[in-house]
Amino acid sequence: MQTRVFVVHMLPILASRFFKMAKMAGMMSEGYAWIIVDVLTSLLDSVDSETIEAMQGAVGVKAYTPRTEELDNFTTRWSKRFHKENPRMEKTKLNVFGLWAYDSVTALAQVIEQVGVSYPKFKKPTKRGNLTDLYAIETSNVGPLLVPLIRNIRFKGLSGDFHISDGQLLPSAFEIVNVVGKGDHRVGFWTEKSGFTKKLMKGNDVIKDANYSTKKEDLGPIIWPGNTINVPKGWEMPTSGKKLRVGVPVKGGFSEFIKVERDKETNAVIATGFCIDVFEEVMGSLPYAVPFDYVPFETPDGESAGDYNELVHQIFLEKYDAVVGDVTIVANRSRFVDFTFPYTESGVVAVVPIKDNERTNAWVFMKPLTMGLWLTIGGFFVFTGFVIWVLEHRINKAFQGPPMRQVGMIFWYSFSTLVFSHREKVISNLTRFVVIVWVFVVLVLTSSYTANLTSMLTVQQLQPTITDFYDLVKNREYVGCQDGSFVAGFLKNMQFDSSKFRIYSTFEEYDEALSKGSRNGGVAAIVDELPYIRLFLSKYCHKYTMIGPTYKTSGFGFAFRKGSPLVPDVSREILNLKEDEKMVKISRKWFGEEEGCPGGDRTVITSERLTTDSFKGLFLIAGLSSTTALTIFLSVFLYENRGILSSDASIKEKLIGLGRAFCQKKNVTKFKESRNDVGMEFAAQSPAISVSCDHNEGMFSQDEGFSTTEPGTPLHEIIGG
Would you list the DSSP string of 111-130? Predict the structure, then answer.
């Protein structure tokens, strides 16, 4: 690249010759920018008209001198006296350097008055050496007193605010001028405090005490070389030099992103696609022209010469100046090249087939709950029914009778709570407590089941065949990747078996592989970057869906040589393009509107089956309430029959005695009066005992040694008989 901006720091005599030669060389034309410093700008009045003609369009800066009545009067007196003393000289104007000289003498006079020197004395130098006649120069005795004062002085002079600080003259404002016509034309001012401004107030203050400005809008219009108002770009690529060699990948598919062909007649390279349009739009927006040629990365027979890593490495080998295409910005590539800002968002995702809709399945009503939850619910129904039967059997006729009837009552009462159709009244307060808690549990379970079943039957189900990325690793499924992409290396880093990779080059191959499945020569999932997957789903949105997680990457970018000056400018234009409507138009041109495929990049919409973990707390409450009630009942029951437990009978005989006591119908009204009369003495007489529970005959019958009793018969009389 060649610069087109020049800063000129010359005296008028040399500058006059320089600009005439620049004009002859064609360098005062459109596209160039010339900036002249104050040493030349302040003396433009002394430059001849031919030089001014050659400097048309130059921009200069000079110290600003405010017009005052005192200055006008002084200029008039000086002009009359100067031309009177120099009648043969051409008309000459007083410039800022003359005003500074006058103010410098004024400053010296003020300092002398301040020190109070009436008649200064001088002394000759003591050492002459080889100074020739310089030894005749005398020095003032008060010089050391004057120097500190004159090096730091400030007052209002003919040139305006005359300020010397630490020996340096500090102009308060600079005037920006444009060489147009026969002289210079003011376009604005610059001050250290506020930057650019169009106008100054009296005293060289900015009209508005605004923030520091570098905007060109705060200056007047500038006519640039070539008599144009278009701001020069500042850079030009030499038309006679080498063009930028831009490498492009050669691919068999994914032509929406990039496609490289050759003209059959001229053999010229024709590159098209989303990436090419973005690159050409960005390069066309640069403030300077950059000619380039596309160079395919191919073998002599027209096939791809390697993967994307090898393509990018060609820049490092100086075979290409840049690489354009669907090239992802990754760390290992950035060691050899500089990437621009990404022009697409990206990430690595997996796409899998969608299961068939299960709404027509005859067993769909079982789907809302997992098998483990179904079994857990069934177990709690039986357990709760058993607890209620134990608590009510001795005092409630509805829970007494033949054994089969009592077993049926266990199941009937608990399961009937599903539809809240239980009509049997319960007597025990413990039973009421258990029933209340269980009815609440059933209410929550039925509500959750109903909601999930409704969702499964009404919401469109997009249930993937695989729900998690890591299932592919655990199940050792085959996975598809794009040919030449970095995704294969990415999967290896995630502990995928490389022998399970299958490489494809087109969307049609993706579709065929996913349709076959992993066990039939296809794959269980395709893993690729987000832009490809979105475009793939826009074409096959009813067959496949994405699964998570999404692994973020840096996106697509353009690659240049290390240290290339194009990178920051191209990156800046990419940002501008992404914020502009042009990027949307380019995307629509190549990817379309995705009509008919709502949510092409959608996530999975599905109703998850309810598991036991979802109701752990609920089952804990139900289990604790039933167990607590059963424990309290058994404690009371054993206390009432402590005589059986304290007898000398065997464990088996004690258990039979407790069973008989449990099956005896309890008189609720006289229970408290008779509970202390229970006693027992067992006689071990019969080796064979059979136990049955009958509503008419009592709980137990025996073949030898035991006889059935009436409910009111004392237990010690039963054993003694």
Answer: HHHHHT-SS--EE--S--TT
d(CA 721, CA 700): 16
For residue 321, give the nearest of 233, 267, 241, 232 by alpha carbon: 241
pLDDT at 701: 37
Cβ–Cβ contacts within 10 Å for residue 34, how many?
A: 23
List all residues 6 or more positions away from 452 whose beta carbon is below 8 Å from its beta carbon: 368, 369, 607, 609, 610
Phi, psi (rounded to 5 degrees) for 395: -120, -5
Angstrom distance (rounded) from CA 487 to CA 347: 10
Look at residues 179, 316, 617 and name the one whose alpha carbon lies nearest to residue 440.
617
pLDDT computed for residue 546 by the predictor: 84
Residue type for position 672: K
The count of other CB atoms within 10 Å of the CB of residue 448 is 17
Q: ∠ at Cα 303 (505, 485), nearest 5°?
A: 40
- Give the HSE-up count for residue 160: Cα atoms under 13 Å, Cβ half-sphere: 19
Angle of the 69-85 helix axis to the 96-115 helix axis, nearest 10: 110
Instruction: Please report which helix (H) or strand (E) contains residue 69, including its range.
Output: helix 69-85
Residues 279-297: b if buried by 16+ CB within 10 A, e if exposed? bebbbebbebebebebbbb
Q: Half-sphere exposure of 3 toward its Cβ, with a 13 Å CA cutoff? A: 6
Contact 367, 554 (CB under 8 A): no
SS3 category, 708: coil
Q: What is the spatial distance between Cα 301 and Cα 373, in angstroms, rounded to a whole number?
A: 63
Q: 315 and 323 in contact (C-beta within 8 Å)?
A: yes
Average pLDDT of the chain, as a whole number: 80
> H-type helices in 259-393, by residue range?
274-284, 308-316, 371-392
Neighbours of 43 (CB within 10 A): 17
Please say whether the beta carbons of 493 and 537 come within 8 A. Answer: no
- Preceding omega of 549 cis (within 30 degrees of 0): yes
DSSP-assigned letter for residue 704:
S
What residue ranges in 425-499 does DSSP mark as E strands? 479-482
Q: Residue 227 burial (CB < 10 Å; 0-12/13-18/19+)?
A: exposed
> By C-alpha distance, which of 356, 351, 326 is closest to 251?
326
Sequence-separated (6 or more) residues with CB below 8 Å from residue 146: 108, 111, 112, 115, 140
Paired tokens of 133: 């006649």
Q: At 363, is the pLDDT very low, low, confident or very high (cuts 50, 70, 90)? A: confident
275: which residues sit within 8 A by CB, 6+ positions away? Answer: 257, 258, 324, 325, 326, 556
Burial 250-274 (b: 16+ CB within 10 A, else e): bbebbbbbbbbeeeeeeeebebebb
Name the amino acid, one letter, at 378: G
Question: CA-to-CA distance for 421 and 405, rounded, in angstroms?
Answer: 18
pLDDT in tens, 107-129: 988 888 888 776 667 776 666 55
Nearest to 480 by CA among 539, 528, 533, 537: 528
Structure-block tokens of residue 106: 């004024």
